[in-house]
Amino acid sequence: MRFLTIDSVNNEKIKHAVKLSSNAKYRRECGAFFLEGLRLCRDAAESAADIITLFFTEDAYEKYTHDIERIAGKAETAYLISAACANKLSDTKTSQGVFLICGFPLLADESEIDTNGKYIALESIQDPSNLGAVCRTAEALGIDGAVLCGCCDVFNPKAQRSAMGSLLRLKIIKTDDLSSLILKLKDRSMTVLATTPDSRAKSVTEIDMTGGVLAVIGNEGNGVSQEIFDLCDLVTIPMKGRAESLNASMAAALVMWEMMR
Amino acid sequence: MRFLTIDSVNNEKIKHAVKLSSNAKYRRECGAFFLEGLRLCRDAAESAADIITLFFTEDAYEKYTHDIERIAGKAETAYLISAACANKLSDTKTSQGVFLICGFPLLADESEIDTNGKYIALESIQDPSNLGAVCRTAEALGIDGAVLCGCCDVFNPKAQRSAMGSLLRLKIIKTDDLSSLILKLKDRSMTVLATTPDSRAKSVTEIDMTGGVLAVIGNEGNGVSQEIFDLCDLVTIPMKGRAESLNASMAAALVMWEMMR
User: Fold this and answer.
1) Contact at 8 Å (CB) between B120 and B252?
2) One digit per residue, pLDDT tens: chain B, 261 residues?
3) How far away is chain B from the Cα of A161, in angstroms, using its nearest Cα?
4) Cβ–Cβ gap B239/A142 under 8 Å
């Protein structure tokens, strides 16, 4: 295969990629996002996302020839870039030299929520690594989808990296009005739970989770908002040590585990 | 209170602190380690560790006067340092300007393992953030202690940070010979489990964990070593999605949760 080449870090396509990597508003304007790393790029190429531009270094091509040719085959354009360009694009010290610009995959619609399924809702999760980690665990445990409200950008490169591709496969539903969605789902007989550190709440091990369930996980510092709390059945994760010692993604993992157990 | 001051980043005490922060061998030679952040420093001051040196900036003193005076009261020496020094010491972009050098706390001895208790063993965990996260969850769930074999340094600042103080409170037992320890604990009727992605193993939900249990979590990439596997009852975490999607600290959290459930 022969590829176009880019040597200069001042090339417009490199600048565009850097801006997609660092700027959520620019990502929304372009309807595109930036990924780094062979495995993530491979996952993206197998997902429903549009594969717009592939960048790779000569070293990467030597090491991962087969993978890169396959990804390049799905991309609109593929560029062989200099080590200096890779360094500019990379967020890590030991870059694999493989990068991708993808179009936003279509998110799922509220109407696609199966009211007999198991879902997690994330309210105002701010740390992209937490968002990614929760979605990664959700996929592993077989959760049907994640509802996001007021969270950091799912197309943030850190979220994508810690999600290990799960954000490209898991059903993601975004909403600006979690309250209304919860009311609708409750009308359709779904159990809607919110986690609280309050030990007077029912233990997550004692709640009936046989039917459709949506479990809301709140912001890292402040937990679930009062407005949402008032609409939900409250559950707590019984703890013996310091309550503050369970971080948001671990709490989410335990709740999802109990939902699927 | 009046404090000694350090202005120059070339001061020997600043250099000593930086080296403690970055060099595990130097930490062992000195029997001391370095912590950053108000909360961690406060946790350390309340722990059994020797508090050797406190460093803080003027800004930090203004914001956290009460806390800093309390930590300073426990420290052998306390230094008011310049912003340049704080910048040199800090691992983060938005430093709180509070740093501590502590002596190694005494680790627990194998003989202190209560054979009716619940313990986790970490074999060759290499990522300090994973080590810290697992110990943080262990403390939250009420696990009695953690056995470490071949892991990264518990006094690594990243491990301490992600542990949120739990490494200073949880019972930590270090061993170079996990096999012998496992044999001794089995002789004393403890159940010793190792986690495996192999779906033919018994589910973690079906194992009797009423008595004393030690659960071994293996290296992030390779899992538990064959030598240890051969000594353990195997358990698996049943998954519906991609098995690879459950990272080491999430797997550890689910196993500990089932031990304590």
Assistant:
1) yes
2) 678 999 999 999 999 999 999 999 999 999 999 999 999 999 999 888 899 999 999 999 999 999 999 999 999 999 999 999 999 999 877 889 999 999 988 788 999 999 999 999 999 999 999 999 999 999 999 999 999 999 999 999 999 988 988 988 899 999 999 999 999 999 999 999 998 888 889 999 999 999 999 999 999 888 899 999 999 999 999 888 775 668 888 889 999 999 998
3) 12
4) yes
Cα A54 to Cα A225: distance, rounded to the nearest angstrom: 41
Q: Do B247 and A166 touch (CB under 8 A)?
A: no
Residue A198: helix, strand or coil by DSSP?
Answer: coil
Nearest to A154 by CA among A162, A36, A257: A162
Helices (H), chain B: 12-22, 24-30, 38-46, 58-63, 65-74, 83-89, 128-141, 157-163, 178-187, 226-229, 248-260
Helix (H) or strand (E) holding B213: strand B213-217
Give the N- to C-terminal CA distance of chain A in Å, as an integer: 49
Residue A51 tokens, joined: 């594969």
Best A239, A242, A250, A261 residue to mutate vs chain B (most B CBs within 10 Å): A250
Mutate to test the interface with B, among A43, A257, A258, A259 (most CBs of B within 10 A): A257
Q: Tokens 């930490």 identify what position?
A: B27
Task: Please name the residue that has the structure tokens 């850097």.
Answer: A18
With an 8 Å Cβ cutoff, are B137 and A250 in contact?
yes
A216-229 b/e (C-beta count within 10 Å ≥ 16 → b):
bbbbeeebbbeebe
Which residues, 6 or more positions from A212, have their beta carbon under 8 angstroms from its beta carbon?
Answer: A114, A115, A116, A117, A118, A119, A185, A188, A189, A190, A191
Contact A247 B136 (CB under 8 A): yes
> CA B154, CA A249: separation in Å to the nearest integer?
22
Torsions phi, psi of A163, nearest 5?
-80, -15
* Contact between chains at A246 and B166 (C-beta distance less than 8 A): no
pTM score of the predicted model: 0.84
A31 three-state secondary structure: coil
* Identity of the amino acid at A64: Y
Rg of chain A taking only CA atoms, in angstroms = 20
Q: Backbone phi, then psi, for A58, in 5-degree steps?
A: -60, -45
Q: Are B27 and B128 in contact (CB under 8 A)?
A: no
**Measured between alpha carbons, how far is residue B172 from residues B3, B45, B155, B260 in Å?**
35, 18, 12, 18
Compute the residue count for chain B.
Answer: 261
Contacting B with CB below 8 Å, chain A residues are 133, 136-143, 164, 166, 205, 239-247, 249-250, 253-254, 257, 260-261
